């Protein structure tokens, strides 16, 4: 009866979240309503008129805003301007509060400018004619973009990822855009500011779309922030008191460790640090797995350092390097995922085989699942809470909207992560994107009794047949799925 209730709750929760996600919502990690409330066309005209008459102030807005990306011929299409300089602009003149607002715009490649005479653009801080790229560079950039989206999908980021878009389109200009930054007065839209301070948008035919705008203090505190602060404050207090009790009893009162309360020392940094840094050789352990695990972890960390940057300043060079022999040790880092899955399976069989028979295993199956769930979920829940809360308040920058998007994901889809189904239920909005591995590991653990039941038979031939049969089934299903979906043989495949 209890199991049925749990299953009903899980199904209802999944349906509820999916129905709720159908509604299009704004990212509440950034206060969008505040950005809309400050818009005032008349006030913008007044401030622009004042700025145009003040050379220093005009230079501040121009210097921290729109400019041509450096390194276009090597594939760079991004210019971030100067985020903190723009938001740091603040002047109080003639009863006006002039404040900078940082905005990001996307300018498509596929457009033709109706440019005036060159002398008419002379002296402007930005010349639209500089946004020109030759077709050969564009085609290579499109290939690089496809490869990068595939790599980001492997890391759990499925933004704008489409299996049908793994190859370059017929028109390479279709999806390519310049991502530029512009610093405008607080009450202005980007269109009004660019037209007033730089050039006439409609006259030149300058087409673009607003990506986002940012203002100081535009990240509101929400209930999740206060819950997280309270929880971590309590944990911090318990850790401090437990550590003081532990160190005081050991070194000040000179008591034996066995005389100290185990409960009071449970949060001690000293005791837990000692446990974590003390390695004992236990009979029956497979010590070689420790070395494999260490090397795989270092490989994963190193590989991620090359894939976490928001953009590459020289993607053409990156694209060429990725297919060279020098990059092989890095591009092959994805095999560490298979390494960890293999080790998990080996340890599962190794630690359980021979300790129980088939019927004992079936009777204790609920404890088998509960033990795994309690080992994995609490720490994952802490990470999800941190990402859904004041993680958004830590620092700021021009690409902080990416972090804000991950914050929103956890506020909306945290339950899917806690239930370990986030890789199936709307993976494009996954909370804690790198937790896809934990979800798959847990799901493999759930279906493992199908194999373990025969391993516990006590018959060597039956056990090996079940293990090899399971491996064969997985290989057939995986190969068939890749063939049916026409998936590439690897993440990085030259086109």
UniProtKB/TrEMBL annotation:
Keywords: Membrane, Signal, Transmembrane, Transmembrane helix. The chain crosses the membrane at residues 221-245, 290-307, 327-352, 373-391, 435-455, 467-487. The keyword Transmembrane applies. Residues 41-215 form the Nose resistant-to-fluoxetine protein N-terminal domain. Residues 1-19 form the signal peptide. One of its GO terms (molecular function) is acyltransferase activity, transferring groups other than amino-acyl groups. InterPro entries: Acyl_transf_3_dom, Nose-resist-to-fluoxetine_N, O2_lipid_transport_reg. It holds the Pfam family NRF. The keyword Iron does not apply. This is Nose resistant to fluoxetine protein 6-like. The gene is LOC113497592.
